Amino acid sequence: MNLLLIAVAILLFFGLIVFILLFGESPRLRNGIVGKANRALTVYIPRWIIGTLKKILGPKNWNRLSHLWHYCFESRNPFLQIFFMILTSGSIYLFLKYGLPHIPGIYLHSTHLIIIPSQIVSLYLSYYMACTVDPGTITADNVQQYLDHFKYDGLLYQPKQCSTCRLEKPARSKHCSMCKACIGRLDHHCFWINRCVGVNNHRFFFIFLFTLVQFCAYGAYLCFQIYRGMIIEWGLDAAYVIDKKTGQHSPITFRKAFLHVLQKDRIIGAIGILATVVSLVVFLFFLYQLYLAGRGITTNEAFKWELIEDSIDRGELWLEEEKTATNDKDKVKKRMDGSKKRQRKVESLEELDNIYDEGFYRNLYNVFFPPRMKKAA
């Protein structure tokens, strides 16, 4: 039981660290304890470590370490892909070696012998697609297609040139310093697939997340049912304990029987615990991604909208009305001077429209059936 608590505590700790790193810079959280923890992890502690290492290692060794750090954490590399493959393949191997002999069992039908291989193949295939499909790299050959399809909203996106690529930046695109390219409708850069998630591979990223969730949930279910079968096979369902004081016999609870099996067969238990935690964490992330996609917002744009909401709270966002020959058009901009002529302060985020939100189902359709663009050479 102590081992289980330690494992859960470690996983929760790392989950908290990931949450702080991902959301600590959010305008809603950066002024609170999460923001302070984020600055401690990303600014103060690294600054102290760097200063200490410079004194210990000297200039030459420090430069070597800096190059290694840049490759590992500031450029594309396959480390997390290798880690994922080792962790996944190792867990599958251990399950096939120690868990498969229990199938079929008391609670598991022989049809699982057909389902298990199909699950393994689907996981590897979905991961391969997520890792290899181009995310929507913008080049001189296809930039006009992106400009024609993705219109500027005058709020999140304005016409401008990418200072790195020297190309016109289409709306909803962003330059990725890791991939060293502008990506169409960029959602985020994912280190687990070693590339960006963009307009062209967002669907495969969703498929991979869904496959991973149900794969791990299925694995946890198998481990649980194997343990249930062991309880019957070992006769623990009929076992009892004797009270030393009264001599009274009482049957042991399912919980105690389960923990006894866990102590005796820790490999299947460890696989089940890992599968349960991964399925829950990835499922929550999957729901968050689905929620954003259904609202017509990317992860990158969600952060931009939080910045806009922060500007509204500080009273810095104004609505300027410009009359044209054909219609009245609203422009939203930050007030740069003291003039209030023809301007109205934006009081709520509800006053602003997201022109990329076409309704929940249509938004999801656009993700899973993206426009066909000329692929990068």
TrEMBL record:
Topology relative to the lipid bilayer, per the entry, is: Multi-pass membrane protein
- GO annotation, biological process: protein targeting to membrane
The protein's UniProt keywords, in alphabetical order, are: Acyltransferase, Lipoprotein, Membrane, Palmitate, Transferase, Transmembrane, Transmembrane helix
In short, the EC number is 2.3.1.225
**Broad class of where this protein is predominantly found:** membrane
Quote the catalytic activity from the record.
Answer: L-cysteinyl-[protein] + hexadecanoyl-CoA = S-hexadecanoyl-L-cysteinyl-[protein] + CoA
| InterPro entries attached to this UniProt entry | Palmitoyltrfase_DHHC, PFA4/ZDH16/20/ERF2-like
Gene Ontology CC terms:
endoplasmic reticulum; Golgi apparatus; membrane
Query: Is Transmembrane set as a keyword in this record?
Result: yes
Care to name a GO molecular-function term for this sequence? Answer: protein-cysteine S-palmitoyltransferase activity
Matches recorded under Pfam families: DHHC
Record domain Palmitoyltransferase DHHC: where:
158-305
Top EC class, one word: transferase
Q: Provide the transmembrane region boundaries.
A: 6-24, 79-100, 106-125, 204-227, 267-288
Q: Does the keyword Transferase apply?
A: yes
Give the location in the cell.
Membrane
The UniProt entry, under PANTHER family, shows: ZINC FINGER DHHC DOMAIN CONTAINING PROTEIN (PTHR22883)
**Family stated for the protein in its record:** Belongs to the DHHC palmitoyltransferase family.
Its UniProt domain note says: The DHHC domain is required for palmitoyltransferase activity.
What protein name applies here? Palmitoyltransferase
Q: Which organism is it from?
A: Lichtheimia corymbifera JMRC:FSU:9682
